[in-house]
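Here is one chain, start to finish.
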Amino acid sequence: MYQEQEEDFLVFPEECLDNLASVQTTVDDLQSAERIQLVLDRNVQVLLPSQASTKVSLPPEFFIVSTAEIKAEYQKRTEKLESEMILKTKNMRMKEQNRYKSNYKYCLIRIKFPDCLILQGTFGVNEHLSDVLEFVKESVFDEQRPFNLRLSSGSTFDNEHENMTLSELNLVPTTVLLFTNDPPENNEEHPYLKDELMALVQ
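Its structure:
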């Protein structure tokens, strides 16, 4: 009983009392150890255009909407309509966008190459564009050859964008970037991606 509330606790066995020194050593090691940084698995995939556009077949039951879902959707649309009727400052709009983005922890980035192959990787929303550029650089056959990434709308990224997060660049929760570069000087043709990644194509 602690502060009039029951809590679970562990009991240290009496037979271990003679070995308290090793327990203290273990505790000290745990407290002084450096924090282990988790590394996000990119879950790299190389897709053909047909695979990237594959539609999932869903059973008819999937589209059945319950009364509670209808009410929730009606409430959501009502709130959205009321929100759109309010004059908002730029800061207010930014806060709403950030609140929407905060629902996501990860995002899916797809890079489409001129040969129509698509390189796919998973990133944290707070990773930077520079992380995506490094990911692409490590994936292409010729790492020394300059390249650019641009949005399907035609917008490109400047050096100042490299230190911005994917969330700040509105690339969350998923986006497709187009890969562009200059043709090789020796005119030798080779797949854009490294051989080990080309082996992932199914």
